[in-house]
């Protein structure tokens, strides 16, 4: 059926079935089937730990947490099926050994009516310690709303038959990304005296860094936006996996929500990159008239594979809004080429395990970029869907990533440099062209007509055979933009952001002499804004 046209972008498979010890890629037999009906929801187990401490003697503290509208528990109360069961809450509260205290749940949460969870803690300080510390673990099942459009009728199931006889099932359905953001309790804290502050924090300061925060007191008398976020559903992803650091306060309570990003580089550069690519998204939406990709995207999650060989993600993209007949590789190519980098920044934050090194992220993005652009900017293939080739490329990329990881299950006591060199050689040439093609094509869409092409021509005359690297080409592009653009300030900033993006991740830069055979003119000529 034509409306089921989809494109494989990236999947990192369990490497034990991907690369043999001698470096030979296993053969995969792929088939794609449609399973009906599509489920309305998909559930993921999660745990939130709530803890607080009080240093002043007080009889009781009421802790109130409002849960996101997308969160529902799997089990229900025996007497009221609209409310969750007590056993979903796990251990109610446990105090440390230096205090005598207890805590009980005074109100069960009900997301349907926005009823919050309330916990009342009562304690009696000892003669030597006036601090009461207590915590509770809420074992919840997060339910994602998977219904993106009423006319989507199936669950995508890609079944891979491995050479050793095992089968890998890649299951997917449509998911609104904003629901994945709400994997934590949020809202206000209702207290007696003294007041307490609720902070939602990331799993580890070594893994995540605060990107943006909003703070407001209980009387709404002040609000401090530390780093503005225009649209949290798009820009920010709150990775808070547990509640912690409830500290006493002598003033009105404060609710603070933090946004996090991976510590892959400088925070300012990261923010510039995300902000710029987000703006590019909206520009593209205006240019070609399709719905914002993050709203229409189909994201596929593959759960329950063991670390460190767990599947990180597979993505299918539908183009049925932009192209009414659902069949043109040209229109699909335009759609897909615009979504790659922002999708990676957004998606990898909740698919990567915090213990995995950045090389896994490098490999994932490299493969996503390669697969997108192989089908789009660099060819006119009328049948762009080649699952067999994609799986081979993914396997090689995965092996390269794992070979640079000390905990590599496939790596012998002596590093096999010959195998790694062969894998790198396989990847090197296509990625050089692909990254440069993407960056320069997007730059050509962003700046006044002819700016990028004239910069390349000038650059090649004085820098023959030189790579389009951050040290040379993109500063030259920025200088050229200042000369040709009527809005120098904003375009110059955009050029600097291309510069930042060109330095991000560790794959090779494009050599401009290699770029001569690839047209810089988009296959769909779009009007300049």
From TrEMBL:
GO terms for biological process: peptide catabolic process; proteolysis. Transmembrane segments: none annotated. InterPro entries: Aminopeptidase_N-like_N_sf (IPR042097), Peptidase_M1_aminopeptidases (IPR050344), Peptidase_M1_dom (IPR014782), Peptidase_M4/M1_CTD_sf (IPR027268). GO terms for molecular function: metalloaminopeptidase activity; peptide binding; zinc ion binding. Keywords: Signal. Pfam families: Peptidase_M1 (PF01433). Gene3D superfamilies: Neutral Protease Domain 2 (1.10.390.10), tricorn interacting facor f3 domain (2.60.40.1730). GO terms for cellular component: cytoplasm; extracellular space; membrane. Residues 285-479 form the Peptidase M1 membrane alanine aminopeptidase domain. Residues 1-20 form the signal peptide. PANTHER family: AMINOPEPTIDASE, PROTEASE M1 ZINC METALLOPROTEASE. This is Peptidase M1 membrane alanine aminopeptidase domain-containing protein.
